[in-house]
Amino acid sequence: MIVKICKVHGELTHDMVYQQYSIYKDKRYPYFQCKQCVSEKKKRLYYADPEKHQKYALMMRKKHYEKCIERDRKYKRQLLIDERYYDLLNKKQNSLCAICNKAETARSHKNRTVSADLSEIIIKRLAVDHNHKTGAVRGLLCGKCNTALGLFQESIDNLKSAIHYLSSHEECDAYVDHSKL
Question: What is the pLDDT of residues 28-42, one digit of tens each?
Answer without folding.
Answer: 666 677 788 888 888
